[in-house]
Amino acid sequence: VLTKDAASFELIFRPNIELISVVRKFVESFYREILDHDDITFRLALATHELLENAVKYSSNGETIIRIAIHRSDAKEKRVVIETSNKAHEANQQALLALFEEMNAEHDAFAYYQKLMQRSVKRRDGSGLGIARIRAEAEMSVRLNLEHDGRVHILAEADVAEEVRA
Amino acid sequence: MSTMTIPPLTAGTLKAIADLEGSALKVHMSGNADLQSAAQLEAWLHELHTLASRLAIGETVVDLRTLEFMNSSCFKGFVSWIGEVQDADQSGQYRIRFLSDSRMLWQRRSLHALRCFAADLITVETN
Fold it and tell me: Is some CB atom of chain A closer than 8 A to the CB atom of B102?
């Protein structure tokens, strides 16, 4: 679907590290075409990149679905939803649950991001910053849905005001 | 290669070079800093810190103006580097000055976050 008021697509693929930047550049063009605003385009591309990296790192079978949907939510705003879905091992599901529980208890996205940055200084197993960065830098809300079969859905959402267009 | 600097880094599409200019270390980065380069970048920044401490550098200038993108894993490499500078005793600390390009939109938000993380050490200049 591709109109100025509603646009969406879905990719099912086995992302690898090299492909993530390629997909980010592709969706950047998509966002720019539909939303016509450089800063919003950057924020959404950043969120897409971080979600895809998360999927690459934690997918148990390598396959990831990414869905991107933009639709008019009212006369002045559009709603953007970026969703990644993949299967994950139990340990990674639990780690994600713990991360979201802690993050959701902290309403100041930037303060929480700074807290995680401090914690990451001596961390050796990944950055632990990707999801918090989507909230703090891309200014999107992020939520987690876990299915009983181990499928993980992470959704990043934002309302984009028409009047801030370039 | 002089012992007054460290070998350049090439990892994925990321390139990083460090040179000693006067009493400052000048670092230039270009390309994409993503998962392909995260581990090597963090190790390289650690090496940079060791060199800066050994030479009692007063300032490190990091030119990011042609760095297209930085993911959270590479951003974490910078956080760890800044943490090392913070942990050094007073004589081993040095200021870090980032050069950024206003057209690279990731830089404004990410460098703001780094500046808030270590406001006493970091300045950001944007053209």
Answer: no
Q: How confident is the model at residue A165 (pLDDT cuts 50, 70, 90)?
A: very low
Which amino acid is located at A30 in the chain?
A: F
Which residues from A are below 8 Å from B36, CB to CB?
A: 17-18
Strand duo A141-146 + A77-88: pairing: unpaired
Distance from B63 to chain A by nearest Cα, in Å? Answer: 20
Q: Does B113 touch chain A (CB under 8 A)?
A: yes
Q: Which residues contact A122 (CB under 8 A, 6 or more apart)?
A: B80, B83
DSSP tally for chain B: helices H, then strands E: 3, 6
CB contact under 8 A, B35 and A123: no
Predicted complex ipTM:
0.93
Which residues in chain A touch residue B14, judged by CB atoms under 8 angstroms apart?
none
* Residue in B79, B113, B116 closest to A121 by CB: B79
In contact, A140 and A50? CB cutoff 8 Å: no
Specify the DSSP element, H or E, that contains B87: helix B72-87
Q: Please report residues of A whose CB lies closer than 8 A to that of B69.
A: 21, 24, 49
Distance CA A92, CA A89 (A): 5
B113 and A113 within 8 Å at the Cβ level: the answer is yes
- For B40-83, the pLDDT digits (tens) are 999 999 999 999 999 999 999 999 999 999 999 999 999 999 99
Q: Which two tokens stand for residue A159?
A: 């309302």
Q: Tell me if the pTM is above 0.80.
A: yes
Cβ atoms within 10 A of the Cβ of B125, count?
Answer: 12
- Residues A65-83: pLDDT tens digits? 999 999 988 878 899 999 9
